[in-house]
Write a structure and sequence with these properties.
Structural class: alpha+beta
Order of helices and strands: EHEEH
Distance between the termini: 24 Å
CATH topology: Alpha-Beta Plaits
Radius of gyration: 14 Å
Strand content: 15-25%
Largest sheet: 3 strands, antiparallel
Number of strands: 3
Number of helices: 2
CATH architecture: 2-Layer Sandwich
Number of domains: 1
CATH superfamily: Hypothetical protein rpa1041
Strand order of the largest sheet: 1-3-2
Length: 91
């Protein structure tokens, strides 16, 4: 059994977006979970920069397959509004 820690495959701003990504990946038998650093609250008049990102994780062994699923979905469907990767950030 693979002992590598799960990897972040995507980031989203809302629970609903994260749930869509999770459902999509699970429909391809890719286990997935998501988390964020702060509790989810509805902030009216809050900018996206002040909200916590939701990180979506998959097993390391399925990272490439999950990336392909998300890329194909973006190409064929309405794009998911994911947080762009920040090369300077650490998880």
């Amino acid at each position: 059994m693979d002992k590598a820690p799960p990897v972040i495959i995507a980031r989203a701003w809302t629970d609903s977006e994260a749930a869509v990504i999770k459902s999509l990946l699970q429909s391809y038998d890719i286990p997935c979970h998501y988390s964020s650093e702060s509790p989810h609250r509805i902030f009216y008049n809050a900018s996206m920069d002040t909200m916590a990102q939701i990180r979506i994780y998959v097993p390391a062994a399925l990272e490439e397959e999950a990336k392909l699923v998300l890329e194909e979905h973006r190409r064929r469907q309405a794009p998911l509004h994911l947080v762009e990767d920040d090369p300077g950030s650490e998880e």
